[in-house]
């Protein structure tokens, strides 16, 4: 039977990177279990337990599980209905000198939970430079267009002008928050390894192994934690590590999912206005029916994947809340799905975001035409201020321009004509004192406030420092290539 004859997650076949798929692969999982058993045996031997060098050597030699060994474990699990014990048995068949000491003093969560923490650590370390690279792309884009005036929108209605650079600096600011969230969860994770805690977290089994010597129990926990590359182990756990760790990590990932939805949504709107486009390749087809279409499929996909990701934390929250006492197994089947999938989703979103942010296209002439259609209305405050400066009553100026504005609005909405408010102002004697100033009052640059300066300061003092530590990793990344 071909792999095409059974269901495959599109996260694997279409969207996520090979590196992230490898982290959460079946082989990586069991190889990590075996490595944990090696670290446990090494530490126990160092602390005086009777474990022979031959046993440890055989474990090291067979740390990588073969396809045949997977088959052996699969058959054994059918018999014993326990995945960890099936792999203890299988490992023992290829490392017979160690068969009697594999998993010594441990419970299943020694391998399952510690391995999950290792995978999440490695996943976060893979995601962070990718996120930094997206921040860098969008920061550069914001600087490039910090002065280009564009219509802003509140309530989906035209509002005062901003700049493209200012708008994209706000998206970038959200991504920096996501970066900090992920950095924080990684730092917390490195201090909360489950380590060697036994069946209910009391370390009773290890205390017995070391004949009541608590100092050796603590040293065992420390040695295994260090071998696994974590800074410290949690002092207290139940049978599992605190499932609130999963909640924190998935909330950070889910928050990032919300950010990419927001960004993708706005790019799609701007593309519908024809103000900008995401990258569009030479042979790309926008629609099977409408040959002229340039659908923003990457941003649409970004929104779609981001939506699923942003809903992932609910699963972790429900699992945490439903865990009874020292542990119930209703977490297992769910975590096998939502932890890997959350990381694969985040990875897929970052690949898309990096690709899109590397090739955004801006159409200044379209932007200017859209500004010209709305600018007369926006200029009314400038006109009122100029009249007041000439000695006119603010209320009288407001009333006069309100009447003309409504007339011009009717011209646009009812008759389908162009906005002729400026022409109406120029024909009205009330406005004669400021007619010589009209060009200056209508200059788009006078409507963007401090936007260019804000962008420059933001990139210099927030964006650059946030990603500085990832420069070397970003340099090695290259361009993001989409599978589909």
What are its keywords?
single chain, 484 residues, mainly alpha, two-stranded antiparallel ribbon, two-stranded antiparallel sheet, 21 helices, elongated
What is the residue-mean pLDDT, rounded to a whole number?
Answer: 92
**Which sheet architecture does the biggest sheet show?**
2 strands, antiparallel
User: Globular, elongated, flat, extended or rod-shaped: what is the shape?
Assistant: elongated
Radius of gyration: 31 Å
- Beta percentage is under 5%
Amino-to-carboxy terminus distance: 25 Å
Detail the poorly predicted runs.
none
**Number of DSSP-assigned strands:** 4
Give a description of the structure.
- There is one protein chain.
- 64% of the residues lie in helices and 4% in strands.
- Strands 1-2 form a two-stranded antiparallel ribbon. Strands 3-4 form a two-stranded antiparallel sheet.
- A hairpin with a 2-residue loop joins strand 1 and strand 2.
- It is elongated.
- The two termini are 25 Å apart.
């Amino acid at each position: 039977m071909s792999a095409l004859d059974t269901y495959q997650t599109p996260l694997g076949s279409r969207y996520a990177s090979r590196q992230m798929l490898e982290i959460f692969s079946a082989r990586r999982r069991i190889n990590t279990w075996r490595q944990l058993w090696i670290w446990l045996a090494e530490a126990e031997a160092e602390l005086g337990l009777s474990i022979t060098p031959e046993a440890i050597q055989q474990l090291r030699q067979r740390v990588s599980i073969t396809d045949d060994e997977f088959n052996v474990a699969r058959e054994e699990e059918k018999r014993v209905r326990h995945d960890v014990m099936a792999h203890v048995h299988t490992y023992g068949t290829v490392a017979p000198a160690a068969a009697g000491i594999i998993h010594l003093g441990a419970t299943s969560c020694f391998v399952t939970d510690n391995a999950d923490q290792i995978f999440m650590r490695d996943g976060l370390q893979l995601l962070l430079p990718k996120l930094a690279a997206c921040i860098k792309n969008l920061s550069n884009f914001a600087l490039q267009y910090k002065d280009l005036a564009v219509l802003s929108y509140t309530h989906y209605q035209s509002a005062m002008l901003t700049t493209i650079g200012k708008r994209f600096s706000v998206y970038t600011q959200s991504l920096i928050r996501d970066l900090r969230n992920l950095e924080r969860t990684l730092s917390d994770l490195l201090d909360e390894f489950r380590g060697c805690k036994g069946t209910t977290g009391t370390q009773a089994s290890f205390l017995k192994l070391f004949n009541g010597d608590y100092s050796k129990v603590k040293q065992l926990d420390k040695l295994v934690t260090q071998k696994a590359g974590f800074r410290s182990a949690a002092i207290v756990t139940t049978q599992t590590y605190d499932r609130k760790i999963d909640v924190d990590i998935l909330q950070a990932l889910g928050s990032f999912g919300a950010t990419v939805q927001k960004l993708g949504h706005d790019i799609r709107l701007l593309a519908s206005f024809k103000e900008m486009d995401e990258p569009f390749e030479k042979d790309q087809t926008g629609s099977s029916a409408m040959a002229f279409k340039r659908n923003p499929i990457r941003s649409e996909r970004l929104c779609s994947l981001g939506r699923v990701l942003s809903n992932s934390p609910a699963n972790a929250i429900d699992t945490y809340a439903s865990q009874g006492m020292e542990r119930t197994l209703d977490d297992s089947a769910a975590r096998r799905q939502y932890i890997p999938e959350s990381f694969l989703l985040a990875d897929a979103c970052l690949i898309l975001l990096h690709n899109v942010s590397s090739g955004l296209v801006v159409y200044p002439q379209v932007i200017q035409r859209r500004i010209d259609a709305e600018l007369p209305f926006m200029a009314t405050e400038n006109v009122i201020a100029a009249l007041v400066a000439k000695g006119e009553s603010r209320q009288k100026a407001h009333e006069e321009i309100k009447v003309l504005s409504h007339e011009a609005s009717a011209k646009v909405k009812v008759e389908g004509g162009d906005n002729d408010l400026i022409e109406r102002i120029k024909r009205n004697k009330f406005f004669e004192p400021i007619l010589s100033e009209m060009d200056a009052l209508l200059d788009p640059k006078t409507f963007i406030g401090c936007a260019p300066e804000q962008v420059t300061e933001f990139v210099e003092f927030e964006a650059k420092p946030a990603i500085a530590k990832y420069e070397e990793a970003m340099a090695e990344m290259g361009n993001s290539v989409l599978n589909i």
